[in-house]
Amino acid sequence: MIAGGSEGVGAAFALQLAESGINLVLLARKPDALESTARQCRSHGVDVLTLAVDLVDRTAVEKVVAVTNNLEVGLLIYNAGANTCSADFLDAELTEFQSVIDLNITTMMALVQHYGRAMRSRRRGGIMLVGSLAGYLGSARHTVYGGVKAYGRIFAEGLWLELREHNVDVLELVLGVTRTPAMQRLGLNFDMPGLRVADPVDVAREGLVHLGNGPVYVAGGNAEDIIRRNNPDRAKVVEGTHRLMRRLLPD
Ligand SMILES: NC(=O)c1ccc[n+]([C@@H]2O[C@H](COP(=O)([O-])OP(=O)(O)OC[C@H]3O[C@@H](n4cnc5c(N)ncnc54)[C@H](OP(=O)(O)O)[C@@H]3O)[C@@H](O)[C@H]2O)c1
Questions:
Q1: Residue 200: CB within 6 Å of ligand 1?
Q2: What is the residue-level pLDDT of the chain in tens, covering all 251 positions?
Q3: Residue 9 CB–ligand 1 contact under 6 Å
Q4: Which of 132, 154, 226, 235 could be bridged to 149 by S-S, CB 3.0 to 4.6 A?
Q5: What is the DSSP letter of 89?
Q6: Which numbered atom of ligand 1 lies nearest the CA of 33?
């Protein structure tokens, strides 16, 4: 099951898994993109179930669980989660930030608990959460997004400890800037000199290869940047990255 499996990294996961002969359940909001990815996956001879659902919606988990009632979900990839509210914290409604929390935390936890319990009983399975370099430091207009991405990583680390004795893999796949349709729609300055931009196909492949090497894998050649982001001189790190982010993000 890929939550956010229609575009970008999610679609790349789907195609790579389909090429390996793995049946899929794909979740996303836009039915057209979902069906187009599903069609490409089916051409590899696998079964693909799609559900057009907004994972922020209160009824989402119920709907997802209902369509998979008779299925064994052996791998849950929670990919949906790009920032949907890039305002300064005091300048947007709390409800808008709540959606960022619901997508990245509330619904993620509910799906992980539901499918994770079944994996623990079967003593096999895998859970991958797609995280971000943004979860390693605070940044303006990412107050909530950075926080939820930090949460995802810490959650994955704990879950990894709890599930490894049950033979269930847990991986937080940390991405840096990645050329996805969502980021292209946001108008990110991908051409900024010196910026490392990853391809969705490459980072999805890295994630699948490293599924068993949890709890955290930093994709796209960004591992060294984590050392810089963890520097205890927080003002230096936060201000330095802020300058970079202002060149990267549209106004
Ligand atoms: N792209 C980057 O530069 C970058 C950098 C660091 C981390 N990441 C992480 O990588 C992951 C993927 O990001 P992305 O750039 O591809 O954007 P995204 O907006 O998270 O889209 C990824 C997939 O999720 C679906 N999706 C998004 N919101 C959804 C919702 N509310 N309900 C159901 N499905 C939803 C999208 O389809 P629909 O729009 O049709 O729903 C799409 O299939 C995220 O977790 C993000 O935090 C991305």
A1: no
A2: 999 999 999 999 999 999 999 999 999 999 999 999 999 999 999 999 999 999 999 999 999 999 999 999 999 999 999 999 999 999 999 999 999 999 999 999 999 999 999 999 999 999 999 999 999 999 999 999 999 999 999 999 999 999 999 999 999 999 999 999 999 998 888 888 888 999 999 999 999 999 999 999 999 999 999 999 999 999 999 999 999 888 887 77
A3: yes
A4: 132
A5: G
A6: 40
